[in-house]
Amino acid sequence: MHGIQCSLPLPFPPLLRQKYVALFDYSARTEEDLSFNTGDTLEILDKSPGEWWIAKALSGVSVSKQGYIPANYVAPVESIDAEPWYFPDTKRLDAEKMLVAEGNNQGAFLIRNSETQKGDLALSVLDKGKVKHYKLQKLENGHIYVSKTKPFPTIKELVEYYTTQANGLCVRLGEPCQKTYGLSYNTVDAWEIKRTSIQLQKKLGAGQFGEVYEGLWNGTTYVAVKTLKPGSMDPTDFLREAQIMKKLRHSKLIQLYAVCTTEEPIYIITELMKNGSLLEYLQSHKGATVLGVDCPRKWGVASGMAYLELQNYIHRDLAARNVLVGENNICKVADFGLNVYEAKEGTKFPVKWTAPEGIHENRFTIKSDVWSFGILLYEIMTFGQMPYPGEIHISLRKIIFLVRSVLMMSCPPHCPTVLHNIMMDCWKENEQIRPTFETLQWQLEERAELKSLVPKTS
């Protein structure tokens, strides 16, 4: 029960119960947990010591149910803690560094606690590459203002007003400052958890930048923990993956649970997919026995990629090795943040999954992901066979010849022509006429020819 060993204190009396709003989605990880989505309203029944509270859902997927929730996933309904522009413990100089960082545009802003006057707030705004600061002051009636002639009952109303007009500010407020992640105190946010709450167990794999472990969170929840080997790369680059995962939320994408960034090695904690990579799963006896032509539809990779397409995000390394398999054969796309390669002979480069424009011009778009999806379909229909069979140690020069001559792979044994045609559509040399992922999702879901055909296994 999330580390709570002693008997629980009595719940709050009804009149003292506070309403909270969910800052993030949360999927129950034990029978005692409560699932909720961002924006759901929750009533806190018991603020037990530690990181887990007992709450009742007042709206959303679990309405009227109660259970444990992570305390750092919620904020009081009327609290500005729930606002994306509130950076409470950020100092003036840190605010300036954050606002001028890449990703912020004219008018980017944040509100922080004042360093000089306890209890006061300050507004920091980006204007023409420089940051200007305004003290937010209060009248006797509690109203807040930048200019005394224009007070507001709440901070939220003040922000809403100045997003429509400058009226005395250096610039009209734009988007909230992008949150960045690093090793300093000012990067800690609601996703940060105590390192001691994670127990690393067996190693699942290792790579150039670090290792991946199965871990146990709070003694109750099994998770995957990706670690960064000290000195192997810039921590900011490593944490870009977590940044991206916070923004991209879909049932067919690996879910971020938390991060540990205050000391090395940095941890990125995600849901654990018990059956490993799709490549390993396909190559195993278990993978072969469940594989059918309908699997590309049921496993839903196209659905996850259609979501990325909608969000204008490029994966860059879509392959069976980067799709993970959980219980009940559920598949999810993984590895969003570190997939940047240079097209040079002799470097680590997934040439057999890469579109011509990626090889020749080092140019990647969602349509180059579509090319890779065609290769992924080939992997599925061959039980994890290496693409371009017979070319065991294929060179960059040879793969360039293969894709330039449009000498694509022939139809795998027992693969219906209709599915091979989908692959061929993905491998169009002209990227503009390759299908979208939305189209691919529709083709895999709607084509009746795929539903009754199952390839034989030998």
Q: CATH superfamily name of the largest domain?
A: Transferase(Phosphotransferase) domain 1
Model regions low in confidence, pLDDT < 50 over at least 5 residues: 1-16, 180-188, 338-347, 448-458
How are the strands of the biggest sheet laid out side by side?
4-3-2-1-5
- Proportion of strand residues: 15-25%
Helix content: 10-25%
- How far is the first residue's CA from the last residue's CA? 47 Å
Instruction: Give the CATH level 1 class of the largest domain.
Output: Mainly Alpha
Total number of helices: 12
Q: Count the domains.
A: 4
**Structural class given helices, strands, pairing?**
alpha+beta
| Annotated CATH architecture of the largest domain | Orthogonal Bundle
Biggest beta sheet summary: 5 strands, antiparallel
C-alpha-based Rg, rounded: 25 Å
Write up what this structure looks like.
One of its GO terms (cellular component) is endomembrane system. ATP binds at residue 226. Keywords: ATP-binding, Cytoplasm, Kinase, Lipoprotein, Membrane, Myristate, Nucleotide-binding, Phosphoprotein, SH2 domain, SH3 domain, Transferase, Tyrosine-protein kinase. Residues 85-177 form the SH2 domain. The protein contains twelve helices and 16 strands. The protein is 24% helix and 19% strand.
Task: Give the helix/strand layout.
Elements: E1 19-22, E2 41-46, E3 52-57, E4 66-70, E5 74-76, H1 92-100, E6 109-113, E7 121-127, E8 130-138, E9 144-145, H2 155-162, E10 198-206, E11 211-217, E12 221-227, H3 235-247, E13 256-260, E14 267-271, H4 278-283, H5 285-290, H6 295-299, H7 301-310, E15 323-325, E16 331-333, H8 356-361, H9 366-381, H10 396-404, H11 417-426, H12 437-446
Antiparallel strand pairs: 1-2, 1-5, 2-3, 3-4, 6-7, 7-8, 8-9, 10-11, 11-12, 12-14, 13-14, 15-16
